[in-house]
Write a structure and sequence with these properties.
The protein has a 6-stranded antiparallel sheet with strand order 2-3-4-5-1-6, sandwiched between helices. A 5-stranded mixed sheet has the order 7-9-8-10-11. A 5-stranded mixed sheet has the order 12-18-17-16-13, with helices on one face. It is globular. The longest helix is centred in the middle third of the chain and has 74 residues. Helix 8 runs antiparallel to helix 9. About 30% of the residues are buried. It is α+β, with helices and mostly antiparallel strands and about 575 residues long.
Length: about 575
């Protein structure tokens, strides 16, 4: 069957959720439950695929949610016997935007005796009850993972008088269509101050006695901090909280590459669907492929015209960039030699006669530092000029290649806030402490600008990889050489890995391990050897360390560290 292109964002016609159910033999239970629904006429038909020798299954279901609204559903269950539970992934799509009054798909297709144990995919919270907030020691990791949840909406309710935890849900009055999407957490007493301290960088606050919707990374929606909070005693009058949840649930939700893959599989699979639906999808796909076949010819003609028009300017910019790169290498070599001479003289200083020579070498060292920094600034300017020349054609650039237009931040707090709200494909760790040694340095603003340029480039790379696939852009180095790259930093600053000698040192290896969601690694930490040089010269020489999961479960890039140069073999 002809495949349709993978969607770039989660459509409003789709409901996608995933998580854990406590129990065993999930595939058999789900199959028996669906047989009963089919016999009762609740669903039209279903087919399933169970690999030989495995306890996993994929179910493709046709469900008439309303008289004139057919729904195609894919339910995948994966048994995990060692945990006494199984993981589910449910994707449902209809021909028009999803109506919150429709029954939720998960309670319908899941076996009823297991629904009491529906859990979110990245936390231990459950949808069927009110959940406690972890103690202070684990609160930061819990808040980060809950805010980044790809399918659920976290709601914090402050109970200033409650002394004991009750699992009675305040959100029972929400429409049934939100079952499996809203997680309720109770915050008691002084826990509110701890939660609000961790939420400072997001610009939202949990009001006393009220409630707060945890903000996920936005996708261009108009939701602001005021619409996320419900003030007053929501335990007595939950209507303002219900309005806030319904308004937020109707906005476009950010999601990772895995959820988009599930939507793509649901659309291309022929197991569930009428002949007319499959014919319509095939005709639409053929028309899209025809347009894609004709696009390269038109683009080639445009590129030839642009090459003739801007070829000379582009070549001049490339030559200037190569010259700047050569000057940077020369300045770096001179700086290295000056440091060596300075160290040699410092160890032999025994009399005042050498003081003048030492002072002269020190001034040479400072001059070499300034030359190196000037070379990097020139290199930055040439890189920006190349991107500018590429963006001059009249033809619109692909959506995946458009650069961020946000203003460069003034300080590290603004940088973290803008990155978490503008860079939808990035997960930024808490950099409050790690950037403290950089504050007040004469080059602090230069480092902030380069860090923002690096984050914008990483976000553009992840978006381009989602749109064009890993075959064209397998890694960041390929993106930095890609002619259609919308945002760039000099490739000489990128280090895709650490040296083998450094990785052989347990102490240096551990210094480059940073937290990630447990969906990436069970330990919650991974080694981040790939890094970008933000500053050069003498310490602090800041660096940015990252973990590229654009081809993994989250479909995002995780920034684990921004700060001074980590310990190396020279300082070992």
């Amino acid at each position: 069957m002809t495949e349709s292109p993978k969607p770039a964002v989660l459509p409003v016609t789709v409901r996608a959720t995933s998580g854990w159910l406590v129990g065993a033999a999930a595939a058999a239970l789900a199959h028996g439950h669906l047989e009963g629904l089919k016999a009762a006429g609740i669903i039209g038909d279903f087919l399933h695929d169970i690999p030989a020798g495995e306890q996993d299954a994929d179910f493709h279901i046709r469900w008439p949610v309303a008289d004139d609204v057919p729904v195609r559903v894919r339910l995948t269950v994966r048994d995990v016997p060692e945990q006494g539970s199984f993981r589910y992934e449910l994707t449902a799509e209809t021909a028009r935007p999803w109506d919150g009054a429709w029954p939720p798909p998960l309670p319908l297709f899941g076996p009823p005796d297991l629904l009491r144990d529906i859990c979110d995919q990245s936390t231990v919270a459950r949808f069927t009850q009110s959940n406690p907030v972890p103690r202070t020691a684990g609160m930061r990791d819990w808040l980060r993972e809950t805010s980044a949840g790809p399918s659920s909406i976290g709601v914090l309710v402050h109970d200033g008088e409650g002394a004991t935890f009750s699992d009675a849900r305040l959100l029972e009055g929400l429409p049934p269509g939100l079952m499996g999407r809203v997680l309720e957490y109770r915050v008691f007493g002084a826990q509110r101050q701890s939660v609000n301290r961790l939420l400072q960088s997001t610009g939202v606050k949990l009001p006393a006695g009220g409630a707060l919707l945890l903000p996920s990374r936005p996708t261009g929606s108009a939701i602001n901090a005021e619409t996320l909070a419900a003030k007053g005693d929501v335990t007595r009058d939950p209507a303002p909280l219900f309005d806030a949840v319904l308004r937020y649930a109707s906005e476009p939700r950010p999601t990772g590459g895995r959820a988009l893959d599930r939507v793509h599989h649901l659309r291309t699979a022929s197991l569930a669907g009428s002949d007319g639906e499959r014919l319509s999808r095939t005709q639409a796909t053929l028309e899209e492929q025809r347009l894609r076949r004709e696009a390269p010819t038109a683009r080639h003609a445009e590129e030839q015209a642009l090459t003739r028009a801007f070829g000379g300017a582009f070549e001049d910019a490339l030559r200037a960039t190569r010259g700047a790169e050569d000057r940077e290498r020369t300045a770096t070599g001179e700086l290295r030699d000056a440091r060596a001479r300075f160290a040699a003289l410092a160890t032999t200083v025994r009399s005042r006669a050498l003081a003048a020579a030492l002072h002269t070498v020190g001034r040479c060292l400072q001059a070499a530092d300034r030359d190196a920094e000037a070379g990097e600034e020139l290199f930055d300017a040439q890189t920006v000029e190349i991107v500018h020349l590429r963006s001059r054609p009249a033809a619109p650039r692909p959506a995946s290649a458009r650069a961020l237009t946000a203003v460069v931040p003034n300080n590290w707090e603004e940088l973290a806030h803008q990155a978490r709200h503008a860079c939808v494909h990035l997960v930024l760790a808490d950099i409050t402490e790690t950037t403290h040694p950089l504050r007040g340095h004469p080059l602090e603003q230069v480092w902030i600008r380069r860090t923002w340029q690096t984050l914008a480039t990483l976000n553009s790379y992840a978006a381009a990889k989602t749109a064009h696939g890993p075959r064209l852009l397998p890694h960041l180095a390929a993106y930095l050489r890609w002619p259609d790259a919308a945002t760039l930093f000099p490739a000489t600053r990128h280090a895709p890995r650490e040296s083998a000698r450094l990785m052989a040192s347990p102490r240096l290896h551990e210094a480059r391990c940073f937290p990630v969601p447990r969906t990436i690694h069970p330990s919650g930490r991974v080694f981040m050897g790939e890094h970008v040089r933000i500053g050069s010269g003498r310490p602090p020489a800041p660096r940015l360390h990252l973990y590229d999961d654009t081809g993994g479960r989250t479909g995002q890039i995780h920034i684990g560290y921004i700060g001074t140069h980590l310990p190396s073999l020279r300082t070992n």
